[in-house]
Here is the input.
Amino acid sequence: MDAIGLGYLAAGIGAALTIIGAGHGIGKLAAAAMEASGRQPEVAGPVRTSMLIAAALIEGVTFFSLAICIILATK
Amino acid sequence: MQQEAELMAGSAASDTLQAAAAHAAPHGEENIFAELLHHVQDAPKLETPFGYLYLPQFEPVEILGMSIDFSITKHVVFLWFAAALLCLTAVVVARRIARQRVPSGFSNMVEAMALYVRDEIALYTMGARGLQYTPYLLTTFFFILLMNLLGLIPYGATSTSNVNVTAGLAIIAFLMIQASAIRAQGVRHYLAHLTGGVHWALWPIMVPIEIIGLFTKPFALCVRLFANMNGGHIVIVSLIGLIFLFRSYLVAIAPASFVVGILFLEMFVALLQAYIFTMLTATFMGLGMAEAEHDGQGAHA
Here is the structure.
């Protein structure tokens, strides 16, 4: 396998690992938020807002890493 | 520097897509994925039911050693269209509410959304100070929402799926975040926060990290909006591409019904991303202001 093939492989594996991490993180976040609003429905609104902010921050980091994968694949 | 990185990421993304599309049909078939992707990407022409409408193109202008292309493209037209539509909607709705007192129908919907942005975003994140930044947040929210939604009507284009548009929005958000922080804390406290409140021996490490931290927030805003709006379109292109790949009417049923589902999801994403962009900008502004409340040497986010 030449260097370019290895680069593509690295980009693909990197993207997959990124998505595993982001999916795990956002999944845990959503589970905790739903549990919280199930136990205390009266704070469901603020919990949802904080959940969305945290999810967006995780997503932002994910996109950073995906951008690295994309740059790797185009080199 | 920030800008170049953003633009690089954007062009790299579209290059990858074209490279992927080129690989998809290796055996001399017509390159259907590349053909379909042209409808998602920026183009110097508008698509209308009666054929293409070519837009005026200009030679790149040399400014400070950079060549800047001021040509009007599809995304530029829809950016202007969204801006004009936003002005028109805002004026009409404001007049109607002023006349009726109790709004109904469309103006009621706009009022409910505006109230949500004021109460749940501006006042929630910044307290009473949020009121003076509400006009900016309202403009951001409705402008992004309109640009996102214009991409979902037939022959439309999503301006926010262009990284240059989202970079522009992120630069404005960056300026607003810094300006509101300086206004609330004063220049001295603002600069003191860049040291992180640590011993002076650590400043050579701390100050660059804090400065990078200032730029990563709007950079993440830019990439998030761009990637989310682009991602949905590429899923649709890939699903529609399946029909052409299999060349069968029977196969068309499954991708077409999937595409309908994804289009509904995209309507939700259009609203969600406008909300997330506004909410995060307000949160970052609120963080900068909250630091004014405690003493300049404390821990902070």
